[in-house]
Amino acid sequence: MSSLTRTLITLGFSDLEKSERFLGFRELADIDRDELLTALKSANDPDLALQSLVRLLSAVPAARGRLTAVDPETGAAVPNEALFRLLGASEALVDFLIRHPEHLDVLDTPASPEPAAVPQAVLRDSLLSSVRASPGAAVPGAGLTGTEARIALRTQYRRHLVELAIRDLCAASPQDVMPMVGAELADLAAAALEAALAVARAELAAQFPAGDVAAVKFAVIGMGKCGARELNYISDVDVMYVIEVDGAGLPDEAQAVTVGSALASAVSQTIYAPEREPGLWEVDANLRPEGKDGPLVRTLGSYLSYYQRWAADWEFQALLKARAMAGDQELGERFEHAVAPLIWTSSEREGFVASVQAMRRRVTANIRDSEAGRQIKLGKGGLRDVEFTVQLLQLVHAKNDVSLQQRGTTAAIQALTAAGYIGRTDAAKLDAAYRYLRVLEHRIQLVHMRRTHLMPTAPDQLRALARAVAGPMNLKRPSAESLMEDWGRVKRQVHALYEHIFYRPILASAAHLSAADAALTTDTARARLAALGYRDAVGAQRHIEALTAGVSRRAALQRQLLPVLLGWLADGVDPDSGLLAFRRVSEALGTSHWYLGMLRDHQAAAERLCHVLSSSRLVTDLLEVSPEATAWFGNDKELRPVAFEAQWAEIQSKMSRHPEPAEAIRLIRLIRQREVLRTAIADCSGLLSQDQVSKALSDADRAAVLGALLVAEADVQAGAPALTRVLVVAMGRQGGREIGYGSDADVMFVHRPVDGADEVQAQAQAKDVVAKLTSMLTQPVRPAIMAERVLSIDADLRPEGKNGPLVRSLEAYREYYARWSSPWEAQALLRARPMAGSDELAADFIAMIDPVRYPAALGETELREIKRLKARMESERLPRGADPARHVKLGRGGLSDVEWLVQLWQLQNAHAEASLRTTQTIGALHAALALGIVDREDAGVLEGAWRLAGKIRNANVIWSGKPSDVLPSARGDLEAVARWCGYEPGNAAAFEEDYLGLTRRARAVFERLFYG
Predict the structure, then answer these.
(1) Cα distance between residue 13 and residue 693, in whole Å
(2) Neighbours of 375 (CB within 10 A)
(3) Would you give the DSSP letter of residue 241?
(4) What pLDDT shows up at residue 882?
(5) Which residue, 1008, 790, 744, 998, is CA-closest to 895?
(6) Which helix (H) or strand (E) holds 794?
(7) For 894, which DSSP code?
(8) Is-contact 965 743, C-beta < 8 A?
(9) Is 372 helix (H, G, I), strand (E, B) or coil?
(10) Rounded to 5 degrees, what are φ and ψ at 451?
């Protein structure tokens, strides 16, 4: 290894071969190498600095005179720090100096560890002068237009940009000067807009009479980061335009709008239209009322009319940053004053909570998977997280505290701290994190002057960025690894600070916390809770007080955890119910070590618990009576459905130890309730598919029915011989193992007398067994089972329906089906599946019904009867007043349509095609697709509608605790169901449209294929 190579490594060069080659270029031939390397050492990226220096000297030899500067203290020639720091930080700004060597004198900008800002007025005067406009004129008009004006303005803008970048790069602490840099960038943008407006006025003189242009007052309102004076080096500049007609000017507003729109368009062209000197940045007016579809300019009255009548909540939140930045200052300030009350009272609007939740979703919205781990701005712990936290606190509290009405993020943090809304420690951490992230963003953008918020991936770029963020006074040489560690720590800290800052002061109003924590008054704490979605803020505060009161270990732990838990609960559909349920579960479990340990050590389990408690009345009700099941949240293995065989083994064990029928059946029903709860929690946690949920619930019902059958037989036959064997046959969705949380047990009862038994006596005993079984599963028990969802037994699908015997012998069934069976009864048998009882009897029953349900041929008479029955059911069984479009079972394109169509195909084809001989709807549909009975597109529509309808039925029970076959129309209920069905929060309307559209298509397929 040569000595030069070792030197380059020591100085921080990355591409050694390339750098050695550049050092040998003729442009550097007469420059002392040691002095040059010493100078390059000050650059954040020595490789880039060396390459940029060669390019600069090659294009502008005169730049050689700028390599050194005079030390003001010693008078000696020293390396020009301004030049070398710029060379190693921004390839794009070096390109500007190459294009405009007349501005090389900007490199004489003195390097200062504590640079001062350039006054806003100086920047405005400079850019107006660049287009030959008089800075002192009341309404400046440019002496230059067209290409000449654009090049002049952009060149002067970039000169100031280079000067600012030098002061920024030479500052001792990049984080300390970040607010000054952001403010000056915004002031520079405002000056550019002012100069562009002067050019626009001059250019419009050729299109409109001079009096018309002069009569239109025109104000540019800065929005977003520009309005807040915290702009990036390269960013869109968000604006809105306000116009007003001078009293002595234009006769009507329409002409003023035309002139104003032309001025706005001309401003954008001057700033960004293609020219030899590239555009500065895009002027973005999309935050205006109605966005791209709205008029480009409006009068103040038009703005206020829109905001008072039509504006969405996010538009008031966007106005928080609005600032008059160019044009008619008096008109702009009137706009500021007019909209201020609308901004600071927006938290009183009805949709504010939903809007806040939408703001949180936008933090991580639209992030590509490939960029998720590189985002500085978006995602958890990014700049948006900081801004959201600060803006939300402002919107909640600034209505009653004008000191919080700040535009800038750092200024708002200071105001919130001074007013006691953020603790001092948290505020310092949040402010430091924000400055750090903004410096990262600035340094990344400076290199190519491109708008990006992504962390680079190349090791050499990361090393250069690490040095840039550390600043010139840092004595250590930061590495790529240390940069990524620091960034990761800041992201984690920012994400944690949201919960800590927003929720912990709420607790401080109810519990004794340290003096460093912000303590809110009762009213402000309630306002903050209401902003998060707690409708009963008073009740929520009572729950918080109860959870945190006292000196117990539980209270101490919950004081630490509640800031996070309250946020997770607020993410659910009903935070109030979730918080109440959390309180009840916590009180029930007391000081159980495993519960407190789970909350403290198992974040995923605690978050899952909060999500379920605030989103499911069914689970909440069951957990309140079975709080020990909370332990399952921390163990996915415990949430796996227990197989039927394991449940049956447990039931048999219970029955052997508790022979008394009342005790045994109570234990059997408790086991079923436990398994329903287990399935519901696993379902809420996203651990089970729709089919797995149905199977788990079917297994729980089957085990309960089998246990009840044995208990009933033993009770009825006690002290007497067994005269018959009873079989329970599952029918309908129970037979297809397609049930949901609110499903009944559709069954038929079959018996067969034992050899030698009297048939009449056997029939009577079978009837007693069935009656006892039904009573045991449905009647109250002692002690009562709290919150039980009783398994209702429905035998209406038996022959002759409600008019037929409740139980028949196998031979009676055989005779009935041979002589009297109706088409609907054969159709009902398609889903018959033995559920409990004698295996031998089950096999004989299936052998007996197969020829009935899989007929050799379906005649025209039977076909007409099935179609007539379907039409009759639609007209008679749909509840009075129900909307057919929203009834998921009997309505348009719902469960019934899909099932009847599939069952018709089974009746017509299953005799010849064994693949159709299944009790499951989707299995039969897939078989029909494979056989070519239905095409793939139609099958996809039918399956999609059937599955979504099933999800909605389950969601209704999970959310409300009550079964319902109707798509909710109330917005809150619809939102809950939509989330359960996989839609993102706030997308209830889209979910509703999707369901109505899908079922409309499914109904069209049904009518075409069923009725022909």
Answers:
(1) 60
(2) 20
(3) E
(4) 87
(5) 998
(6) strand 793-794
(7) S
(8) no
(9) coil
(10) -80, 110
Task: In whole angstroms, give the CA distance from residue 965 to residue 682.
Answer: 23
Q: Rounded to 5 degrees, what are φ and ψ at 223?
A: -125, 175
Contacts of 546 (CB under 8 A, 6+ apart): 583, 587
Spatial distance between the Cα atoms of 710 and 703, rounded to a whole number of angstroms: 11
CA distance 28 to 54: 7
Q: Which two tokens stand for residue 475?
A: 């004595």
In terms of Cα–Cα distance, which of 100, 103, 68 is closest to 83? Answer: 68
Residue 231's nearest CA partner among 180, 196, 194 is: 180
- List of E strands, 334-466: none
Can you name the residues that pair with 70 across neighbouring β-strands? Answer: 77
Tokens linked to 278: 């590239």
Cβ atoms of residues 215 and 248 within 8 Å: yes
DSSP per residue, 375-403: BSSSSTTSHHHHHHHHHHHHHHHTTS-GG
Q: How far is CA 755 from CA 158, 758, 759, 767, in A?
A: 104, 9, 10, 18
* Per-residue pLDDT at 424: 87
Specify the amino acid at residue 852.
Answer: V
Q: Are 553 and 589 in contact (CB under 8 A)?
A: no
For the chain, the straight-line distance linking the first and the last C-alpha, in angstroms and rounded, comes to 86
3-state secondary structure 169-211: HHCCCHHHHHHHHHHHHHHHHHHHHHHHHHHHHHHHCCCCCHH
Q: How confident is the model over 933-956, as pLDDT tens digits?
A: 999 999 999 999 999 999 999 999
Residue 748, SS3 per DSSP: strand
Give, to the nearest 10 degrees, the angle between helix 936-960 and helix 617-625: 40
Token pair, residue 69, equals 């500067």
219: which strand partners?
A: 242, 327
784/805 Cα distance (integer angstroms): 32
Measure the CA–CA gap between 849 and 760, rounded to whole angstroms. 24
Nearest-angstrom CA–CA distance, 162 and 732: 77
What pLDDT, in 10s, does the model give residues 310-359?
888 888 888 999 999 999 999 999 999 999 999 988 877 776 766 666 66
Q: What is the DSSP string of 820-881?
A: T--HHHHHHHTT-EEEEE-HHHHHHHHHHHHHHHS-S---HHHHHHHHHHHHHHHHHTSPTT
Nearest to 702 by CA among 642, 780, 653, 760: 642
CA separation for the pair 455, 458 (Å, rounded): 9
> What tokens appear for 322 in the block?
């609005």
The residue ranges of the chain whose pLDDT is under 70 are 1, 247-251, 351, 353-366, 499, 502-521
DSSP designation for 284: E
The amino acid sitting at 762 is: A
Question: Measured between alpha carbons, how far is 394 from 23 in angstroms, rounded to an integer?
Answer: 55
∠ Cα 903 906 908 (to 5°)? 115
Burial class (CB in 10 A: 0-12, 13-18, 19+), 551: exposed
H/E segment holding residue 747? strand 745-753
Q: How far apart are alpha carbons 995 and 944 in whole angstroms?
A: 10
- CB neighbours (10 Å) of residue 1004? 14
Cβ(260)–Cβ(238) below 8 Å = no
Please choose, from the candidates 165, 181, 35, 178, the residue with its C-alpha nearest in 3D space to the C-alpha of residue 106.
Answer: 165
Listing DSSP states for 613-632 in one string gives HTT-HHHHHHHHH-GGGGGG
Here the tokens at position 233 are: 């080096």
Three-class SS of 314-339? HHHHHHCCCEEEEECHHHHHHHHHHH
Instruction: Give the type of residue at 139.
Output: V
Q: Which of 696, 708, 786 is nearest to 747 (CA)?
A: 708
Hey, what are 711's tokens? 């208990």
How far apart are alpha carbons 273 and 271 in whole angstroms? 6
Cis peptide before 101 (omega within 30 of 0): no
Is the pTM higher than 0.85? The answer reads: no
Measure the CA–CA gap between 434 and 417, rounded to whole angstroms.
Answer: 15
Beta strands 724-730 and 833-837, pairing class? antiparallel
